[in-house]
């Protein structure tokens, strides 16, 4: 299960490096390249399969994570530790489509 720890992480910058792929920079100096395609399921994330919408990503200045115009976002701790959570998110994403139907 995803552990939303008390650690405070901030996304400080991003670059779109490929379709559905972002390079994220964090306030601790680390950098992560994340391919989001396999988690774009469910009510909030399916619309991001539209590459034009996906590319409208910004950083929320209040919570310091990436957000999209439709309100979709990811916890910055999850993004920071993506390798740890990626498979669980992919598995959950498959269920999100089933629940949405």
The helix/strand order is EEEHHEEHH
Main sheet properties: 3 strands, antiparallel
Helix content: 25-40%
**Count of DSSP helices?**
4
Q: Please give the radius of gyration in angstroms.
A: 13 Å
> What is the beta-strand fraction?
15-25%
Task: Give a brief outline of the structure.
The protein has 101 residues and is α+β, with helices and mostly antiparallel strands.
Could you explain how this protein is built, in words?
This protein is an alpha+beta fold. The protein has a single domain, classed as NE0471-like N-terminal domain (NE0471 N-terminal domain-like). 32% of the residues lie in helices and 23% in strands. A hairpin with a 6-residue loop joins strand 4 (58-59) and strand 5 (66-67).
Record the SSE blueprint:
Blueprint: E1 11-18, E2 21-26, E3 31-35, H1 42-45, H2 51-54, E4 58-59, E5 66-67, H3 76-80, H4 82-100
Keywords:
23% strand, 101 residues, NE0471 N-terminal domain-like, 5 strands, 4 helices
